[in-house]
Predict the 3D structure of the following.
Amino acid sequence: MNNKELVSELANRTKWSSKDVSSLVSATVSVIIGELTEENSVAIPSFGTFEVKKKLERVLVNPITKQRMLVPPKMVVSFKPNTSLKSRIKS
Amino acid sequence: MNNKELVSELANRTKWSSKDVSSLVSATVSVIIGELTEENSVAIPSFGTFEVKKKLERVLVNPITKQRMLVPPKMVVSFKPNTSLKSRIKS
């Protein structure tokens, strides 16, 4: 499902126009990203939690040249589905 | 950020009431979950893609008793941030 399909499905299910739905979906994404860039997590009921995790730096060895490289630490976004979502997917 | 804070932030940024925002956020979550239960992925621009992945069955060995157990295959939800989100988090 792409964004267009998501927006039209939401417009069908609710009283809002596609334009309104689309702008609210964008605003939601932008609020979530804003929180993530400040390293805050965002919890959405019946769904899950978005958070930013720090991946530690690590040493990588090229198996052919045996050369060692230091991979710097980085921040990655993770989504942790909550129990309600997990059980709905399992069944 | 919890759901209440997300909803009030969205209501501040838009022309909608908290009640309207809250019902649209729930509807969005419910459409996404509906797609995931049918094993469809959902792509949201500037954000990422939700998808369901099958984790294969695997054999687990209890390190003390050496007993082998078969862990059955299962479906898990994963969120893959897209390039735009990744680069915003990195910086």
